[in-house]
Design a protein that fits this description.
heterodimer; A: Jelly Rolls; 8 helices; B: about 130 residues; alpha/beta; 5-stranded mixed beta sheet; 4 helices; 5 strands
Amino acid sequence: MKLYNKFEKNFINKGFIINKSENPKSTRYLSNFLKKRLVRLLNLKINFKNLNLNQLHLYVKSNELNKIRLKLISQINKDLKFRRNYFLVAKNMIHHIVGNELAMQININLSIQFPNDESSLLPIHSDTWSGDSPFESVLWLPMVNCYRTKSMFILEAKKMDYFNKTFSKKSIKSVDDLYSKFKKNLKFIKINYGEFLLFNQNLPHGNLINRTNETRVSLNCRFKGLFTPYMQKDLGSFFSPLKLRAATKLGLDYKLPG
Amino acid sequence: MIFKGYISSRKLPDGTINHQKVQNLVIRDACEKRGYEFKLSSTEYGIKNCFLTYFQLIKELKANKYDGIAFYSIAQLPPQKKDRKKLYELILKKKKTALFSLENILIKHKRDMNKLEIFLKLKDFLKYSPKKI
């Protein structure tokens, strides 16, 4: 019996997959949505198509960034088409890696990282360390080209044994210390707009201060098998059902006669 | 005054666990009532007996990144007194503050810390008290 196809083997061995968007129209929808809303929120007198997200730091003050980000997140999550298009960017790959009866995170997240901004850092972590189920995968979509510190880092899957051994020695003093110990083993993801990253969130990952001169704008959302175990982030409060198959529907409705 | 939130992702020693969203709401409310600015929380890792985030926050407090730490509850404090002492000493030395949002306890001075230690002991001993009347 052949258990895994080439995508699955790659995902297991490497911890992530980068591919071209399966649906460029959907990627465009997401990008245009963000640009349109930003032009409106910032009261810019330009056509949204001319807004270069790489240069967003030129239009927004650092101390206003979080307010703008929260407003955008709220608008993103009110738009059902946004959610649908988000999934369509990597639908087939998600089916390969996660399954075809799915739960999707209720709120899609938006990250905006200005050059040299210290306020939106996500130190090294694995989502499972803070209440996520190990059955989840993250679909990460760059709205600009990401590289080096403008991107996120991840520990390669093959280094996980070494990580666990070192961690259990209990010599690590703080989160910064944890990062320093594994710095050499972390890989910054190079990914362009129009591609998607699907990664194993059990692997330690995070970001650093963006030391490039461009802004990073990216989206992330978690997917999991509908019937796989949930941890604190459960069905209803954090995830919602995305796809149920006919046999499941029949099973859920079934009652023994009598 | 800027307060950095500190929430938990594992069961607290008293056996309780609350959604992170709820923990953040409790902290936000406690900060608002005292007129403090709430800075998005850091989450303690769910790994048993792990206090890496706690020590990270102490490090950042020492570096004057904020004026205080807003805990969700006193039950998040590490069980070892020497680890709690690191926070107390820093508060006294750098004139910082810790807020325990659920219990509405603020520690700033030595006397606050002594009271808190007694409170922690009481909470710990309560596990031996009868639960039914």
